[in-house]
Amino acid sequence: ACKLLDLLTTLSPDEFQLHEWLYITDTIDAVYRPVDLNPVALTDEAAEALGMESSEHSAFTPATTIGNSSSEAGARRPFLGGSVVDGADTKAMARDDFLRSVLQPFFSQLSMYSYEATYSMSVPDVELCRRGLLEDILDESTMA
C-alpha cells in the first residue's frame, strides 16, 4: 500500500490529484508545520501515531539524489526507492526494525517530499517507476 501511494504521489495522475489531500498534506503546512496542526492526511496521522515528527528524520533523504544513467537529471523518483534499504534486507528485517527504518521516515516525510517535488516543476521518472512496479509484481518471493 505504501509503494502504491509512493508511485501515485510521484506520478501524480489527474485522477489522484483530486483525492490526494486524503493521503498527504498538499499545502505549505507540509513544509512549515504549525505547532497546533491537527493532521487530516492519513500519512500525517500515521506518522503522529508512530510518534515521529518530520524534523526527527531530517537526515533521511529519499532516492531523489541518486544518479541513474537512464533517468533524467532532476526527475522525480519514488521515495521508497532502492536507496532506502536494499530489497533483500527489507524482507529479512524484524517488523519493528522495518517500521522504524522504512515506514516512519516514509510517513513523516511523504507530504513534504511530494510538496517540494510538485513545486520543483520536475517531471516524474516514468521508466524508473515502471521498472520498480514490474519488479514488485514479478517478485517470486511474495507469491504464494
TrEMBL record:
Pfam families: DOP1_C. PANTHER family: DOPEY-RELATED, PROTEIN DOPEY-1 HOMOLOG. GO terms for biological process: Golgi to endosome transport. Residues 53-74 are annotated as: Disordered. It comes from Aureobasidium melanogenum (Aureobasidium pullulans var. melanogenum). GO terms for cellular component: cytosol; endosome; trans-Golgi network. It comes from the Eukaryota. InterPro entries: DOP1, DOP1_C. This is DOP1-like C-terminal domain-containing protein. Residues 1-120 form the DOP1-like C-terminal domain. Coiled coil: none annotated. Residues 57-72 have a biased composition (Polar residues).
